[in-house]
Amino acid sequence: MPHQSMGSANVVLPNLGDTSSMSPAAERKLGDRIARELYRDPDYIDDPVIMEFVQAIWQPLLSAARQRGELPPELDEAYAWEILLGRDRRVNAFALPGAYMGLHLGLVGVVSSRDELASVMAHELSHVTQRHISRMMSRQAGQAPWVMGAMILGLLAASKDPRSANALIVGGQAAGAQTQLNFSRDMEREADRVGYSVLTQAGFAPQGFVGMFEKLQQASRLNDAGDFPYLRSHPVTTERISDMQLRLPDGAASLATRAAPTDLAQAMVSARARVVSNTEIDALRAWEPLTDRSVLNKQSAYQQSASLYGASLAAIKLRDYAAAQKHLALLSELTRADLSAARLVRLLAAELALAQGQGAKALVVLNAVPTGGGVSANQAHQRGRAEMLLIAQAQLQTGGTTGLAEPLQQWLAEHPRDAWVWQVLSSVYSAQGRAVAAVRAQAESNVAQLDYAGAAARFRAAQELARQGTGGADHFEASIVDSRARQVEALLREQAVER
């Protein structure tokens, strides 16, 4: 059934149809194989503040795709719908088999609005929901899935360092693989069309597509030398730009007539992405001049919030805590009337306190000082993942773990694939003298990142501790370990057969 466009002047393109011979389950297994390697990549990062910002865009897009019928239940259940952040300064995002999405911090750092980032994510989401990836792989029917996975991994490695790809793709094979895995023009147009409708259904401004195209087009005109890898896999054509302009409500918006950005929280997250993606000493020091009063006076509030936030975070990483505190004070005053931005300032202030070993001060900053020892489950759980993790770090730093495991356990009941929270819970259990539970939590962290061999080894270690009676485990805990150990061993055998 063709999807109707929301713009009155739009040309409605026919749905390309699902001509894939690969089942969603098979595609998911291939995606798992690729994601398993990406989780091991040193550039993989889970920054709670950035990830929360990205998820606040991703989840509404998923909901909109479901509401529009773009995401049928069989795909919704079979696919992972996971985002992997990469500490890469270049502008890129890519969809992988099984609905894993790679997102470079370089892209988060260059956007001027949530709408721009949402446009890229909606486009990539639509490549997945329209099964473009599996359709391309179906054309390579003679290729074994592991070969396709190796090709994709090789291309990702080549985009970072051509030499590192040699183990996976040799010589001219890389060019052939890129040709095989590039989306066709029809697929790009369909992803634009469907992505636009998903974007607007989710409540984001359609100008996000135009703004992002402007950035990509400018990079293309400047003969991008590699800073925008997204251009190679998703070339911006005049046709695509014109189509997006026609889809705007007034049908005649110009690329150059966009309102100046005013979202202070987004400016701060983008600044954070730029700092986290480049922690070289000179790059960190380059933030300080941006906070000079003569420079700040010439900037908008949006620019000031980015400059002060980036400079403060850079100063924390340089261990110049006095400078970080000075920048935070100015930033706090600037964002006082903006609840979302003020919250990010509090989170950064807590990070500053933790960096100085002042866990108790961090708890005060987070407004979560325990009364009677411990943060209640509801208190921490309702504050969000970033607060929850900072509270846990602060209480571990101060030596107080009473009531700390409960909010982490509640979160994991709803998000069992959150590897970092499993690691933090392991630290809590260890501080409480619950060795078996601590090792089990480490094993679950391995499972969350698809490292079944590592998980199996840790579950065996937990079983041994339970048998020795030295790990503080009761019968219930030991039973959980035994059950999970059997399940992971089965996954490990299945993984071995796939090879």
Task: Provide a concise account of the structure shown.
The protein is mainly α and 499 residues long.
Descriptive overview:
The chain has 499 residues and is mostly helical. Helices cover 64% and strands 3% of the residues. It has 26 helices and 4 strands. The protein has a 4-stranded mixed beta sheet, with helices on both faces. Strand 3 (93-96) and strand 4 form a beta hairpin. Helix 24 (435-448) packs antiparallel against helix 25. The longest helix is centred in the last third of the chain and has 24 residues, at 475-498.
- Helices and strands, in order, run as HEHHEEEHHHHHHHHHHHHHHHHHHHHHHH
> Could you name the ranges where pLDDT drops below 50 across 5 or more consecutive residues?
1-16, 162-180, 368-382
Helix content: 55-70%
Secondary structure: number of strands: 4
**Count of helical regions:** 26
Strand content: under 5%
Mean pLDDT: 84
Radius of gyration: 24 Å
Looking at this protein, list some descriptive labels.
3% strand; mainly alpha; four-stranded mixed sheet; globular; single chain
